[in-house]
């Protein structure tokens, strides 16, 4: 076993108060690494370091910020195969998916390197004679970042990069399940030339590290991605804190994919298989509700079932694997529990759901497909976060659209159709933040906004130039020349 990997606080790697072990879900005998856990006192030190570094960093030049972010991007991209293997090994994504996620993280840092040079303000005339008006953007302050396990390098990247780009300082708390990718990313950031305290890594529990970030008065903003329940608690804590904190929440999804009678069956099946089951279904944008109109229903179900039979479930880093393991035992138990819930509710388990044995012990599960589901069933309303999808039959387009919008979530939605009329209508009338036509619902470019509506998201969008809305505050200044 290698040495325990440390937290990064005030420009130094420091020991923690405990240790968290990182287990490979493809092989539970394989310990990916051991990582120092931060306690409340260490988290407070990280916050103090970020606060101390903020005045100088928030007034750094665009060139300084560009240079640091560009250097981070270059190293991530040059090491994407190595980092992608680490990601696949600790989280369970397939190796190609892991490498792709790392590449996206590198692209995000490159984009925000450019954004550091593009930040502009406005200058205009006042309605009062002789006055000039300037509207500028300034950094918010110390930003606490709480990230999930399912995208252990891309989601941290799309929070950290804009925060640094706009002059904020960062205290980063990754999910305890995936400290490896977070630590590797932090090592790269630490080598970028950032002043001490601008970026800090604290690995630990939400009840300790996360709670400290929420309670501390020197944390100006919280960016969170995770469950709806935790998101609501964070929102409440930020509102009640003194001073109040700015907050941004990306939470759950129960994404619909509508398949209409006129759809290309092959295109629809590929969109459903990819969107619902790749990355083991562990995506908030996973199309776990497949809403299919009557004329194509049976053909689509038969074709999708055949597609699922051909998917290989195995070790995430093994060549030829289509779907890796579920992330851990708790998630696997939850997935299996929902299989029983669906059957008890009257849905038909048409394919899959079995626990699988492979060469190494891991959390392997056959992708599961329910048919004869209705939109009021728990399997159609609650986020399972695993390789489980249900087919809901609709009479026509209007009913399919109504079903797709009948959810507390609103992150993403998709439609498969060859009709421009229906595609255009769905894009306009879907109650989701992101809409895909004839594509998997999972997958958004790094330079465009990511986020949803209703119970899925709260606050400013993430990614792209829209990220500035959260990581900056607007100042209006008047000048009377004398």
Number of helices: 15
| Silhouette | globular
- Sheet-strand content, in percent, reads 15-25%
**Estimated helix fraction:** 25-40%
Structural class category: alpha/beta
Number of strands: 22
What key phrases describe this protein's structure?
single chain, 482 residues, alpha/beta, seven-stranded mixed sheet, six-stranded mixed sheet, 22 strands, globular
How does this model look, in words?
With 482 residues, the protein is an alpha/beta fold. Helices cover 40% and strands 22% of the residues. The protein has 15 helices and 22 strands. Strand 15, helix 12 and strand 16 form a beta-alpha-beta unit. Helix 2 runs antiparallel to helix 4 (95-118) and helix 3 (80-91) crosses helix 4. The chain starts with 6 loop residues before the first strand and ends with a strand. The relative contact order is 0.14. The mean pLDDT is 97.
Short summary of the structure?
By secondary structure, this protein is α/β, with parallel strands linked by helices.
List the helices and strands and how they pair.
Layout: E1 7-9, E2 12-14, E3 18-24, E4 27-37, H1 40-58, H2 62-78, H3 80-91, H4 95-118, E5 122-125, E6 132-139, E7 142-146, H5 154-165, E8 169-173, H6 179-190, E9 199-201, H7 206-215, E10 221-225, H8 228-240, E11 246-250, E12 256-259, H9 265-277, E13 289-293, H10 294-309, H11 329-345, E14 348-351, E15 368-373, H12 378-381, E16 388-394, H13 397-405, E17 409-410, E18 412-416, H14 420-429, E19 434-437, E20 453-454, E21 457-458, H15 468-471, E22 472-479
Parallel strand pairs: 7-8, 7-10, 8-9, 10-11, 12-13, 12-18, 13-16, 15-16, 18-19
Antiparallel strand pairs: 1-2, 3-4, 5-6, 6-22, 11-21, 14-15, 17-20
Helix pairs in contact: 1-7, 2-4, 3-4, 4-5, 9-10
């Amino acid at each position: 076993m290698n040495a325990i990997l440390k937290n990064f606080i005030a420009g130094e790697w420091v020991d923690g108060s405990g240790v968290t072990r990182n287990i490979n879900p493809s092989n539970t005998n394989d310990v990916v690494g051991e990582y120092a856990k931060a306690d409340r006192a260490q988290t407070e030190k990280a916050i103090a370091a970020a606060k101390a570094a903020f005045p100088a960093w928030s007034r750094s030049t665009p060139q300084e910020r560009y240079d640091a972010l560009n250097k981070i991007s270059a190293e991530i991209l040059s090491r994407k195969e190595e980092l992608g293997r680490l990601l696949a090994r600790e989280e369970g994504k397939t190796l190609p998916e892991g490498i792709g996620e790392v590449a996206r993280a590198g692209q995000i840092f490159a984009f925000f390197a450019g954004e550091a040079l593009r930040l502009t303000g406005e200058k205009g005339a006042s309605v009062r004679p002789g006055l000039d008006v300037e509207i500028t953007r300034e950094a918010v302050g110390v930003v606490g970042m709480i990230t999930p396990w399912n995208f252990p390098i891309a989601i941290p990247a799309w929070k950290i990069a804009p925060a640094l780009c706009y002059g904020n300082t960062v205290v980063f708390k990754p999910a305890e399940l995936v400290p490896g990718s977070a630590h590797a990313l932090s090592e790269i950031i630490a080598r970028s030339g950032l002043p001490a305290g601008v970026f800090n890594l604290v690995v630990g529990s939400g009840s300790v590290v996360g709670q400290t970030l929420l309670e501390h008065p020197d944390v100006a903003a919280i960016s969170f991605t995770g469950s709806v329940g935790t998101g609501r608690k964070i929102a409440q804590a930020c509102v009640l804190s003194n001073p109040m904190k700015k907050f941004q929440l990306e939470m759950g999804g129960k994404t619909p994919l509508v398949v209409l009678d006129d759809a290309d069956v092959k295109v629809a099946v590929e969109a459903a298989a990819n969107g619902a089951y790749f990355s083991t279904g562990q995506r908030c944008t996973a199309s776990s509700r497949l809403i299919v109109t009557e004329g194509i229903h049976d053909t689509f179900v038969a074709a999708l079932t055949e597609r699922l039979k051909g998917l290989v479930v195995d070790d995430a880093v093994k060549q030829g694997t289509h779907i890796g393991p579920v992330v851990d035992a708790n998630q696997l138990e939850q997935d299996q529990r929902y299989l029983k819930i669906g059957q008890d509710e009257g849905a038909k388990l048409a394919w899959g759901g079995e626990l699988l044995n492979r060469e190494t012990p891991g959390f392997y599960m056959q992708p599961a497909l329910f048919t004869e589901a209705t939109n009021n069933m728990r399997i159609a309303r609650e986020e399972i976060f695993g390789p489980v999808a249900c087919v809901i039959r609709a009479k026509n387009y209007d009913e399919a659209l109504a079903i797709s919008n009948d959810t507390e979530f609103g992150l993403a939605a998709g439609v498969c159709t060859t009709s421009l009329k229906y595609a255009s209508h769905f894009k306009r009338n879907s109650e989701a933040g992101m809409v895909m036509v004839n594509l998997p619902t999972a997958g958004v470019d790094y330079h465009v906004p990511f986020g949803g509506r209703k119970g899925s998201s709260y606050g400013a969008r993430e990614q792209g130039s829209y990220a500035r809305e959260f990581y900056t505050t607007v100042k209006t200044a008047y000048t009377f020349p004398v």
